[in-house]
Specification:
about 270 residues; Rossmann fold; binds zinc ion; alpha/beta; single chain; 8 helices; about 40% helix; four-stranded parallel sheet
Length: about 270
Amino acid sequence: MTRPVRVAEIDWTEYDRRVREERPVVILPVGSLEQHGPHLPMNCDAVIPTALSERVAARTGDLVAPTLCYGYKSQPKSGGGNHFTGTTSLDGETLIRMVRDIVSEFARHGVRRMAVVDGHYENNMFLVEGIDLALRGLRRDGIDDMRIAKIPYWEYVTQETMDAAWPEGFPGWPLEHAGLMETSVMLHLHPHLVDMSKAPDHPPADFPLYDIYPTDTSRVPWTGALSPSVAATAEKGERFVADYVDGMTDALIEIFGSRRQDIAAE
Ligand SMILES: [Zn+2]
């Protein structure tokens, strides 16, 4: 059986039927338009959670909403900073309102289960606020049974995959910006968008514990990548993706009682 998992590719009558009869989880991937070094495209934070969400939805019979492709302002210690050409960001208030409005609209359709899958570190609390304001508004409208999960995909990785990817030690997720994991995953998902001849091999960025505003970008490597990625391979990317899809699928089953259906996605 093959059927679409993307909300935007379903006609409204079939969408209405699926919402009413199947009570799917609607997964909302959120990313950014942000530089990811000289070797990766600027859409990494959007296309990675999108691909993972679609693979999860194909397994569980759930749906994926169109991805939010802009995110909160890049920070030096997690995304290189907002000063790079190409990095195109939203004010926090804008992101909060987009999430609030989208959640409220899905609730109006009858959706009562959602999962927000974030691909961009800096979005975190703005997504929480958008979710919280939506739920507060829905409660005032008499809708009190909406449940929303927020899923940080990168945490769903096994120790074996971590050890194989970083035999010399893991640099930490913030410094992984445009590093080995994202580069490997992109080599697996979208190899035509990666140019490994430009992959940085400089050491990981070295930041103080504090932050300064206006932001201090003097310790940000010129490449925009915060850790080296020359050891990235498509094989490592495949292992990461398999872990992430397994972990996210298990999370939806645990939270919402989604069932493993293994429907082939279109
Ligand atoms: Zn990224």
